[in-house]
Amino acid sequence: MNKIDLENIKKELAKREAANYKWEDGGELTKDDIMLRTTKELNKLVKDFNNSGKTNAEQEIKKLVDDIFEKFSDDPEDNIIILGACNYYDDSRCASECDHPLSHIDFDGFDHEYNKLAYPIGRKLQAPCYDNGYKGEKKYYQLMDEASKIVDKFSDIGLQPIFKYWDKENEAINECWFGVHGITKDYRIVAFVIRDDGMLCDEESFDTFYNSTLYTIK
Question: How far is CA 82 from CA 14, 70, 95, 129, 132, in A?
Fold first, then answer.
């Protein structure tokens, strides 16, 4: 079954609701294969096809996570990849995406006294605005490029963009407190709130109050 079959099935379902359609050639199923199936069977085919696309996206994300940890993690404590962050700028009441969250948030602040959850890959690099030398800056940008590929898969697994999530949940963030998205080493996509000096809003887990596990890949 392919995408052409999916469109033909949808048209057959629409036809059964009193609509006519033009059959499209090129699918793996014949017209009889579709017309002789019950509505329940056709709906299951649609559901299975959509789920298969979701499963493929999940496997691609897992591979990206594994590759990022292998290429960029040089600290055994690393447990998360930062995917993006939002806060407020210039007294705005709308969330704005933060460029280079690793430079704006000190995840190692207070010697982790108030952050025992998030130890991001690349936090030692800080960001291009710090004096890391050419190699450190190049590695930082490579890490960010790889992380962006995970974000590109959000829509395939039903997640909204990072900016839209924090714009809706914006009572937790301001000029100093950032809403952050990340994916853990065990493939949990999480959202959490942390201050720029490294203090988490909720310290107990990724599933308390303003922190949330948005999606888990098994």
Answer: 43, 15, 18, 18, 19
